[in-house]
């Protein structure tokens, strides 16, 4: 069995996730709970499978990856045995970099 890695969520990503959940919950608290539950499940999966996400197409750096929780993009960096969640963006939002 592969060694599990540490997953750390940056303050920026944490704030972006909170904002998206708050926005969705205005119309559907149930959908907001589902989104955050799905994100948390995917982040737990990254502990065992840190290369689970695809390389971010706009960047092409193999250490920078993303998982999609439709319609959101969870961007993270994997290096030195650690996953660092950097951003949580709506998929239609202009990607302005890290």
What is the third-level CATH name, the topology? YaeB-like fold
For CATH, the homologous superfamily is named as RelE-like
Q: Between the first and last Cα atoms, what is the distance in angstroms? A: 32 Å
The CATH level-2 architecture is identified as: 2-Layer Sandwich
Strand order of the largest sheet: 1-5-4-3-2
What is the domain total for the residues? 1
The value of Rg in angstroms is 13 Å
What overall geometry do the principal axes of the alpha carbons give?
globular
Report the top-level CATH class: Alpha Beta
Question: Helical residue percent?
Answer: 25-40%
Share in β-strands: 25-35%
Low-pLDDT runs of 5+ residues are: none
DSSP, total strands: 5
| Average pLDDT level | 90
Largest sheet: 5 strands, mixed
Tell me what you see in this structure.
By secondary structure, the chain is an alpha+beta fold. It has one domain (6-90): RelE-like (YaeB-like fold), CATH 3.30.2310.20. It contains 2 helices and 5 strands, in the order βααββββ. The chain has helices spanning 11-27, 29-48; strands spanning 6-9, 54-55, 64-69, 72-79, 82-90. A 5-stranded mixed beta sheet has the order 1-5-4-3-2. The chain is globular, with a radius of gyration of 13 Å. The mean pLDDT is 90.
Short description:
It contains 2 helices and 5 strands. The chain is α+β, with helices and mostly antiparallel strands.
